[in-house]
């Protein structure tokens, strides 16, 4: 697969953020863009990143294997990152996780046969007060219930996705609301 | 003012419609403090921040102004790195700043950069924060367009660029030297300290200030209300307010901006609406998952500031308060907790890498009902072998809570043992 022009343009913008002789700093953001664009880091793209950042194959491999969001193989069209950390577990996350597993017929780490969904259980996603939470591709969803998860997954299947929770809703006194 | 009579400092514009766009932000006072700072001497700005008692909200609670003062005199170029990794379990407040008032953060970061005469600011945001990153990146563009960043900022003669940089899934990149390694395009292996204190030897070996998102967002407010007033809002040695991330079994979880030193039980009962479903409180994790657990008894009369929580044998950390009711099994909580560290240990030090994995295997036995009493002591010993014997504080971050769960709730572990 050739490197798309959009990606090449993006690469220029990213490399520009660092001093000329520090191009290697662009590695992680660039690999990240590669998989946003292509879905995963293809061997060709990996080579291209090595050259673009003036790095080496070994250094790039090291990064791909170290960072948990980096994907050196294809995943489903929709990647569900489901939080399995303390605050989300306290508010019923495990139950919802099991529901997703049953609904999609897959275990964490697996992809549905039709290639639509991959389920990945991840650590804290920084939405603890709004737990349980998940991120589907780039969309964040909070305060999950079995019903909400059903709506989100059915919405994706029907091509009418549920709007993500952007921005994060204000809970607590930071909205200036009366609390006492 | 919020409903509880507390002045909101950094969150006061969170609810303002389109606050993330620069025109609305400027109508609400954004960049006024940068303008003022640029008319002061850099070291005067640092002094104000020092006098205010502002302390780092990333976890360690170090005096922000003191840190800025550590920059060596004659070493250039210098950098500022905003720590937006927000990965300490329980912590969910930086995301609100990034999404709701990114210009406040940018202004604070630029004031910091001016104070230490840095020429570049990098905003490091964790990879999973797609939406917060999008909003903040757009705000950075707007700041350039208005001349608050770039060449000769507001005709002050000082130039500074500001750039986005994302992580890609690694808690360890929240640790400041892990973050710098990651910024340099490497795996996030923390550096040995000394000598690698970022203020002296940081990004690309140059002096670098690493501050948390919330810490920097406070800076314009410190400038606005003055050091004395800011210091007076908190408790002794703890200036101002904090964003407390409240999660778990309370009726009203959420992010609460309250003065440093707000009593823990006030946060839970008065603000959080008490324990949900009429249950009783069992325990609280007061400062993110890395802190020692507190029993319900220990939660009484506890002001949430760095010294008070430390005096009770735990830490305020990132002020992420997780509330645990009587229905929760502590061995199960232990399993959730160590699973995180086992996943996130960077693997550089043997005690941490091997220890976290071993703790995970043992903790699983307590959940599965196959544990022996000996496993309790083994877990304690493993934790003790990690504690203080590693390159970075992730070692302590797993050892401390592990020991505290085992000691304070030993009976619960014993109760699920086979023999
Ligand atoms: C394992 C580990 C993880 C950390 N994660 C974060 C984080 O996600 N965000 C953060 O701001 N600081 C984090 N820190 C603290 C940073 O090392 C550093 O102290 C902080 O960014 C300094 O900023 P401050 O003085 O404004 O708090 C972490 C520290 C450790 C040891
Ligand atoms: S303590 Fe753990 S996370 Fe920190 S450097 Fe050592 S192995 Fe890595
Ligand atoms: S514990 Fe799930 S988002 Fe933090």
User: Span from first to last CA of chain A?
Assistant: 59 Å
What does the radius of gyration of chain A come to? Answer: 19 Å
Overall residue-averaged pLDDT value of chain B? 97
In whole angstroms, the N-to-C terminal distance of chain B is 57 Å
Reported for the largest beta sheet of chain A, the result is:
4 strands, mixed
Q: What is the CATH class designation of the largest domain in chain A? A: Alpha Beta
CATH superfamily of the largest domain in chain A, by name, is Glutaredoxin
| Global morphology of chain A | globular
Element-by-element helix/strand order of chain B: HHHHEHHEHEHEHHEEEHEEEHEHHHHH
Percent helix of chain A, as a range, is 40-55%
| Global Rg of chain B | 22 Å
> What structural category do the secondary elements of chain A indicate?
alpha+beta
Summarize the structure.
The complex is a heterodimer of chains A (180) and B (419). Chain A is α+β, with helices and mostly antiparallel strands and 180 residues long.
């Amino acid at each position: 697969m050739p490197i798309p022009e959009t990606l090449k343009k993006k690469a220029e913008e990213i490399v520009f953020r660092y001093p000329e002789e520090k191009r290697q700093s662009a590695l992680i953001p660039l690999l990240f863009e590669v998989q946003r664009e292509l879905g995963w880091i293809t061997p060709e793209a990996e080579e291209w990143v090595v050259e673009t950042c003036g790095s080496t194959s070994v250094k790039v491999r090291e990064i791909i294997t170290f960072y948990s969001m980096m994907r050196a193989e294809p995943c489903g069209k929709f990647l569900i990152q489901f939080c399995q950390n303390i605050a989300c577990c306290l508010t019923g996350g495990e139950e919802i996780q099991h529901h997703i597993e049953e609904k999609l017929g897959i275990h964490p780490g697996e992809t549905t046969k039709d290639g639509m969904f991959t389920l990945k259980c991840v650590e804290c996603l920084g939405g603890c007060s709004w737990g349980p939470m998940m991120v589907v591709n780039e969309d964040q969803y909070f305060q999950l219930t079995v019903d909400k998860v059903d709506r989100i997954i059915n919405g994706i299947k029907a091509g009418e996705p549920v709007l993500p929770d952007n921005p994060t809703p204000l809970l607590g006194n930071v909205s200036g609301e009366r609390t006492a | 003012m919020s409903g509880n009579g507390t002045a909101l400092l950094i969150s006061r514009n969170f609810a303002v419609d389109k606050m993330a766009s620069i025109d609305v932000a400027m109508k609400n006072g954004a960049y006024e403090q940068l303008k003022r700072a640029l008319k002061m001497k850099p070291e005067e700005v640092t002094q104000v921040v020092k006098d205010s008692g502002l302390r780092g909200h990333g976890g360690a609670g170090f005096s922000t102004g003191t840190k800025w003062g550590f920059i060596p005199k004659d070493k250039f170029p210098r950098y500022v790195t905003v720590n937006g990794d927000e990965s300490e379990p329980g912590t969910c407040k930086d995301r609100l700043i990034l999404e709701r008032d990114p210009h406040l953060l940018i202004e604070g970061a630029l004031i910091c950069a001016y104070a230490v005469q840095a020429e570049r600011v990098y905003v490091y945001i964790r990879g999973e924060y797609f939406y917060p990153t999008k909003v903040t990146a757009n705000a950075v563009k707007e700041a350039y367009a208005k001349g608050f960043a770039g060449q000769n900022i507001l005709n002050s003669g000082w130039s500074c660029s500001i750039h986005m940089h994302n992580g890609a899934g690694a808690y360890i990149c929240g640790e400041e030297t892990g973050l710098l390694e990651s910024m340099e395009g490497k795996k996030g292996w923390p550096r040995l300290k000394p000598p690698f204190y970022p203020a002296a030897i940081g990004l690309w070996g140059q002096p670098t200030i690493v501050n948390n998102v919330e810490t920097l967002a406070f800076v314009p407010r410190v400038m606005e209300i003055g050091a004395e007033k800011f210091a007076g809002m908190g408790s002794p040695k703890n200036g101002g307010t904090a964003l407390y991330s409240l999660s778990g079994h309370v009726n009203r979880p959420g992010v609460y901006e309250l003065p440093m030193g707000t009593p823990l039980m006030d946060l839970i009962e008065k603000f959080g609406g008490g324990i949900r479903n009429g249950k009783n409180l069992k325990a609280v994790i007061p400062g993110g998952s890395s802190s020692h657990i507190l029993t319900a008894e220990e939660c009484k009369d506890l002001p949430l500031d760095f010294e008070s929580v430390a005096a009770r044998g735990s830490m305020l950390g990132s002020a992420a308060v997780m509330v645990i009711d009587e229905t929760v099994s502590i061995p199960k909580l232990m399993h959730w907790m160590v699973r995180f560290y086992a996943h996130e240990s960077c693997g550089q030090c043997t005690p941490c890498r091997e220890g976290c994995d071993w703790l995970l295997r043992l903790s699983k036995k307590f959940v599965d009902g196959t544990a022996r009493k000996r496993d309790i002591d083994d877990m304690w010993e493993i934790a003790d072998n990690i504690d203080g014997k590693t390159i970075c504080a992730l070692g302590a971050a797993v050892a401390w809570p592990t020991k505290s769960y085992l000691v304070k709730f030993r009976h619960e572990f014993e109760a699920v043992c086979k023999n």
